Amino acid sequence: MPTEMADPIIREIDIEAAPETVFEFFTDPAKLTRWLAVEATLDPRPGGVCHQVHEGAPGRGPYLMHGEFLEVDPPKRVVFTWGFSNSDVGVAPGASTVEVTLSPVGAGTRVLLVHRGLPVAAVEDHSGGWTIMLDRLRAAVTGQ
């Protein structure tokens, strides 16, 4: 029986920093590990690896995210596949796609994140996770 796919998760936040600054937090491993993952191997070019180790809840994890960059257009857009080698997550490596679009807004940046291709069963965890992680992104970028 095919897995039912959910509507995309869409999150949007404004960050008081230039798009060039925010963009690096998606493509530089040292910066990505300040807000999203505990380890990262990134080759930010189409076809390049996007591998992340996520801590997970106490007693669970680590979670190994294996993706690939599909589009890298500094400082406007980055798109990568998303999925985990841990079967309990329910999203296989490369099974879903995360699109990040950065737009200048005043002196800052509007971050639009769209996560497509998730099975319905994985939406709740990812939806709440992206809300928390984007708040952490804002704090990391602004030094809070």
The secondary structure category is alpha+beta
Assembly state: single chain
Count of DSSP H/I helices: 3
Described by strand count, sense and barrel closure, the largest sheet is: 7 strands, antiparallel
CATH class: Alpha Beta
Estimate what percentage of residues fall within beta strands: 35-45%
Helix content: 25-40%
Judging by the overall fold, what is the CATH architecture?
A: 2-Layer Sandwich
Q: What's the rounded overall pLDDT mean?
A: 95
Integer-rounded radius of gyration: 14 Å
Look at the structure and name the CATH superfamily. START domain
Tell me the series of helices and strands, N- to C-terminal: EHHEEEEEEH
Overall number of domains: 1
> How far from one another are the termini?
47 Å
Compute the number of strand runs: 7
CATH topology: Alpha-D-Glucose-1,6-Bisphosphate, Chain A, domain 4
- Extract low-pLDDT stretches: none
**In order across it, which strands form the biggest sheet?**
1-7-6-5-4-3-2
Notes on the protein architecture:
With 144 residues, this protein is α+β, with helices and mostly antiparallel strands. It has one domain: Alpha-D-Glucose-1,6-Bisphosphate, Chain A, domain 4 (2-Layer Sandwich). It is built from 3 helices and 7 strands. The protein starts with 8 loop residues before the first strand and ends with a helix.
Write the layout of secondary structure elements.
Layout: E1 9-15, H1 19-27, H2 29-32, E2 39-42, E3 49-54, E4 63-73, E5 77-82, E6 96-105, E7 108-116, H3 120-142
Antiparallel strand pairs: 1-7, 2-3, 3-4, 4-5, 5-6, 6-7
